[in-house]
Please model this.
Amino acid sequence: MILAKKVRLYPTKEQEQKLWQSVGTARFIYNYTLAKQEENYKNGGKFISDGIIRKELTQLKKSELLWLNEVSNNVTKQAVKDACNAYKRFFKSLANRPKFKSKKKSNHSFYNDSIKLKVKEKKVLIEKVGWIKTNEQIPICKYNNPRITHDNKYWYISVGIEVNKKQEKLTDISLGIDLGLKDLAICSDGKVFKNINKTKKVKNLEKKLRQKQRQISRKYEMNKTKKEGGRRCQFIKTKNIEKLEETTRLIHRKLSNIRNNYLHQITTSIVKTKPYRIVIEDLNVIGMMKNKHLSNSVRKQCFHKFRQYITYKSELNGIELIVANRFYPSSKTCSQCGSIKKNLKLKDRIYRCPHCGAIIDRDLNAAINLSMYKLA
Model:
């Protein structure tokens, strides 16, 4: 099993400049490849293989794109491969249509060749950048897919490392987990993991973020000027606006880290109970996001990440993970008599069974039903 190891980098100013250059190159080549594929498809041509595009770029390096020689050749190679794979996945209906990467919104990352990646005591060698200090020692072994990323504050290197699965004694408990908005996760054993977005710390950060965004909006309005002979306005970006935008990026980063850390804590504590199987529901998150009243709350809960973390942690610990059918009526079924209450509404937080008279919390009832999913 391959697990990711993420280590922080401490580059010098010169090295940081080279890292940003590699990030910009990866984005440019990705967009160039995507534009080639789009144009070719509109003209009725077949899919262009990554080898043909790489040959074109090799010729362009000698004439028009001389600056590509300042960056590692593996950055351009992998960017072409990533764009071609994204385009293939779209036509196989495995992913959405690939979009062009924006300088502001896209993730800042690039690929480093695993063969040319060298490691010694708290240092790592990145091609055409040099030896960079790290906060901890990276284990010396065979690496998979090394990526250098920037999270709006620090630089990191992520590598995939082969890890052996744990062989632990599991209990005879089948654990059902119901995900929701009131509480993040409700387990069939009675454990409730609260919604971290309702805590004071997160609410204060979100309030601060809204204030900073309003300040940016007001400053843009103050600095806008009309173009000569036209109705369109031109917005002038000042140093104060740049500082405020940097502050908002750091708040976004902090909120993301808080939610991510909470998900790791929850999934680890669930796996530590050592059930022989875990049952979760297959949520239609895209459909839930269409509800304008709930879309923001659904986005903040990060249901996809929860499923991602519980999946790999279950596999690592030898626990069977079962994803219940999307149309399985876990909330409408009575966990005591098995009858289905068809007229159950979203606002009904207490489940009252009309047949056996059972009264139970709606989410706990769903979690118990999931724990019994496909059991004889």
User: Anything to note?
Assistant: The chain has two domains: 2-162, 174-324.
